[in-house]
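Attaching the record inline, Q. Sequence:
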Amino acid sequence: MGNVIKIDDGYKTYDIVNQDDKLLGQFSFNPSDTNIIHRHAEVVEALEKLEMDISSKVEEKNLNEAFKEIESVVYEKINYLLDADVAEKFFSIMGPFSPLASGQFFIETVLDAIGQAISAETGARVKKINSKIQKHTAKYHR
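Structure, as predicted:
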């Protein structure tokens, strides 16, 4: 295999489990990619707008057709957010607009969980970077 440059791309694999810790699936993405923060905000905004559009789409088309169209947008946005083809893994569990006991749609729970993973990983990595910076600049602060 010739010359190889191997890099750590930051990708991590996450298990998708239910409240009983039953494994429902897995997906991989890079939670510390700084671009993901912007994509997350973009996707949340787009999906909030989509929620508002649901009633008008349902009025224009039959219910099944409207949800198919809306769900295809959700799949596209989740794949865009994570820069990977992972929407099928989430929504094979249940449809994105399935109502939960919490009063949320399933898509909202998915976005919250992804947001928490991004925050946790980014926070941990920033902490490591700050520690490294302090170590190297300590001699200048005496």
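The longest strand covers residues 23-29. The two ends are 51 Å apart (CA to CA).

More tomorrow.
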